[in-house]
Amino acid sequence: MAIKDYLRERFFPHLWCPGCGHGTVLNGLLQAIEKLGLSRNEIVMVSGIGCSSRITGYVDFHTLHTIHGRALAFATGVKMARPELNLIVPMGDGDALAIGGNHFIHAARRNIDITAIVMNNRIYGMTGGQYSPLSGENIRATTAPYLTIDPSFNVVELAKAAGATFVARTTTYHIQQMTDIIRQAILHEGFSVVEILSQCPTYFGRKNKAGDAVDMIQYFKKNTTAMGSKAKKENPDLLERGIFVQKEMPEYCSEYDKVVQKALKGR
Amino acid sequence: MSENIKFVQGNEACAEAALYAGLDFYAGYPITPSSEITETLAYRLPQSGGKFIQMEDEIASLCAIIGASLTGCKVMTATSGPGFSLMQEALGYAIMAEIPCVIVNVQRGGPSTGLPTHGSQGDVNQARWGTHGDHAIIALTASNHQDLFAITVEAFNLAEIYRTPVILLLDEVVAHVRERLVVPEPGEIPLVERLKTTVKQDVDYHPYLPREDGRLPMSDFGGVHRFNVTGLFHDMWGFPSSEPGVVHGLLRHLVDKLENREHQLARYKEYYIEDAEQLLLSYGSAARSAHHIVENRRLRGERLGLLELQTLWPFPKDIVREKCAHVKSVVVVEQNMGQIMQAVKLAVDQPDKVFLANRIDGVFIAPADIRNILRLIQGKGV
Prior knowledge:
The complex is a heterodimer of chains A (267) and B (382). Chain A is built from eleven helices and eight strands. Chain A is of the alpha/beta class. Chain A has one domain (3-265): Rossmann fold (3-Layer(aba) Sandwich), CATH 3.40.50.970. Chain A has an eight-stranded mixed sheet, with helices on both faces. In chain A, helix 5 packs across helix 6. Chain A is globular and about 65 Å long. By secondary structure, chain B is an alpha/beta fold. Chain B folds into two domains: 2-182, Rossmann fold, CATH 3.40.50.970; 267-377, Rossmann fold, CATH 3.40.50.920. Helices cover 37% and strands 21% of the residues of chain B. Chain B is built from 14 helices and 16 strands. In chain B, strands 2, 3, 4, 5, 6, 7, 8 and 14 form an eight-stranded mixed sheet that branches. The radius of gyration of chain B is 21 Å and the shape is globular. Chain A binds chain B through residues 8, 11, 40-42, 44, 46, 56-57, 60-67, 70, 73-82, 84-85, 102-103, 106, 256, 259-260, 262-264, and chain B through 24-25, 27, 43, 46-47, 49, 51, 53, 55-57, 59-61, 63-73, 75, 89-90, 93, 221-224, 226-232, 239-240.
């Protein structure tokens, strides 16, 4: 199936700003789905609120655009009810890890078979440029006119600690790696987390003099490196990309099937 | 049919009724005094092939059942005041996206953590107006286990018919009292199943285009129709829209589909109303004491009647006005500071003949409390 057949073209143009990284994530996601040969009826995409979350409107799957931070809780209900469906949950950084932080760690703990994609542009875009729990320190935002003092979550470490069985990171510069990682994340039976560094030239870029979209993507190229690379040993400040965790553990819906079997037998 | 007779708590009666109604999926979070519903269903639901999950909080519980409902499941969650407060945003979502679901609020004393183990009826107005924005809601209640069973099944039926969340507003007293319940035979109470679309595959399906009768046939997630569901104002495909005509049309639809059906949605019981000079109006556990005193006074020849509401919202104002028209006074018996009394005053022709008999101290309102108010109205000392 051609990529464009996965799109709801009648709902274009999309609302993302020129230079926004989220369109690149949409591209990588659809490439991955196309490579997997999934049919549109097998996919349920659930999102919360924010720029990233509008992605559900543009794809021709079963789509559920919910409330801020709760996408994983809605997705948990869909998945429990229909385990054979593929659940993909794209979220923004604030959506996933500020208001949605509790659902994020509990979905990871359960190891329910959902693919969570954190589109991390380190800012609240839709509301106009406030700092997020992934902004990090010394960032300028509309709510941090004197620069942020909040340390950032490390999404990879947080997901690992919470029990996610597939944890990866990539960027909008590394589109081929992104496609491959998302493909593997969807295939993975368990809770998978893919952090994708994405650029917001409109708010993060302008506020922090990070340049235009091209400059911001170049930043991802220069400041990240493949996991365990020689470059990382030489320059520990580089942020690693790749698949950090990929392990088989009991998946929640399969485990619940065993509960049903026990209940039917009368314990 | 002795095997169908049980001696149970109201919470257990509610859980049994949900199973009778065809519950497929339940998500919940522990909270007093509703936990027995969650516990009963954790045990019973997988026995019927259904699914149960304990979520990380009440917000997640309501979100999870909304997700499951979209796959075609009959769904429920149960909580109490603090959890119900947390659910308000997702409740608005379910109203906006027109998701059939049942939300049980076993009321306890509030505000805040309040009186976790004591009865109250303080969430009546929260059930009506807790979530933001103009909207309509169905809220039902019952005063005894047999009625609670029937009204729980009714909640599932109305959720399906109107594609809406239905709130089952119980209270700690009914929830924890143990009394006799005769479980109806299968088929004894009719069940409403989900109305599915007849639109064929590859034909444009409009999930938010009501039929002539106002109902919206659904297609399950995972089925052949792919559509968008959102809490934003949306067009007939479910795609976000801020076009004034679309916004106005959807909001009117959401409100009118319930508010214009006050009579179809009204469930109530009446005792000795025809010749009553004085009328008690009550609901939920408070109606038990009201009923007791009415029976008691009738034995003495006093012309006292009782209107017991089971539908609180949409408020059955025409029925209340009619039943109250010929009595000298109406005493609303409730365990809050007059939340339904206000609705009664708005409904009747002479609001100054409406009085309140209430308790707000966590102690169950007794027949003596009502008797004292009746004596005061009659100009007698207490």
